[in-house]
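ZP: hey, is the iron/sulfur cluster complex queued? I don't see it on the tracker
AM: it wasn't, my bad. submitting now with these inputs:
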Amino acid sequence: MKATKAKFKFDGGIHPAYHKELARDRAIETMPIPALLRVSMSQHLGAPAKPLVKKGDTVKRGQCIGEAAGFISAAVHAPTSGTIKEVGTAPTAMGTSAAFIAIEPDGEDAWIEGLEGIADWQNADTKALIAKVAAAGIAGMGGAGFPTNVKLSPPPDKPIDTLILNGAECEPYLTADHRLMVEHAEQIWTGCQIVRKVLGAKHVHIAIEDNKPEAIAAMEQAMEGADDDASISILKTEYPQGAEKQQIYATTGREVPSGGLPMDVGCVVENVGTTLAVWDAVVNGKPLTERVTTVTGMPVSEPKNVLGRIGIPYSDLLDFCGGLKADVAKIISGGPMMGLAQPGLDATTTKTTSGLLFLAPQETQTFRSMPCIACGRCVGACPMYLVPAELSQMLEAEDYEAAEELNVLDCIECGCCAFACPAHRPLVQHMKQGKSKVMLKRRQAQKK
Ligand code: SF4
Ligand code: SF4
């Protein structure tokens, strides 16, 4: 099995400064469990989980403390053993408010009894494998948070022939997925084969950008002896190479239609971290209670890739990285392109916290938005073939019908248009706002 260059290249995209050197070569470090963990019930796309415990209860690691509340939802598990100190509501890193469960660890870190893996997963029933993934509460760890068991259950009229394992990690600064591939390639490859079996996918592409040669080499070694339908696709380093639709095109040449999903073209895309969690759930029977987060940025004393329990306060994560050595102008949960600015360090980690980024004053700029000069750069940068300049003007004028006709809902909020715009137009903000208005209008129309 040889790694080969991806056959196709999506249109648009940008080349921001990547700054991955800050944490790329830092081996994953396990963080001690902090004094308090605050576990959100809303760590996934869909309905928040329903708390199953109350103040004063004791829990074990891996115990389900929040049950999935519907088809698109995910269970939440205690990240360690301890006592429930509070069940309440608090702001999240996403800027919303959600129920949380605070756990005071007892220091034992004892797993709940009865967790069992499926050693012979190769011959296991597909439904049993999906049930394991659902019971483990796995949701897309690349950032989207879509419940993985749902992704593994496409409708019968949407057969999947291609599984793409997303190891692109195209967001600047972030290196968690890179380290996972370097350090856990074999487990990721096993998780990938489990997902492939569940989906019945003939082809597998492991998609990695060409700025991660170590990760490519590690995956190549792990996949030694793999069949001819499994390959590594080396992608050109370009943002947003990790976006689902762009990655499907780059690896297969298939275009997901406007308003469509990867399964419409026979594909499923899974993040490498998610696949590692699938391996742990199926082979070891362990629910998702921890993840790797890149804590990085020029002002951070020791940028690191931190393996930490879910529910760690951001302030504790920063302390584990030696605190700050310089002034900070901006804190971002996630990467600089698609992450969310934070007002402080009160939020806690979730299943989707890929990074915690600190930017120095010299790395941030405040712009005054100017009128559009019709230069067309945003159109050239948009990987979704949209016309951001025109959409932005329609959305400013609150003409949501026209924006819907121009496919505003296809916007993946990648930020390429705003990055390219010399007039510093708030294009992504307009798109986000426009999408939510159009969705609201659709929901209201459905209720009538
Ligand atoms: S944010 Fe939306 S409109 Fe802008 S480049 Fe990305 S997909 Fe296109
Ligand atoms: S890049 Fe900015 S200035 Fe140029 S056309 Fe797009 S919105 Fe207008």
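AM: back. The mean pLDDT is 95.
ZP: great, adding it to the tracker
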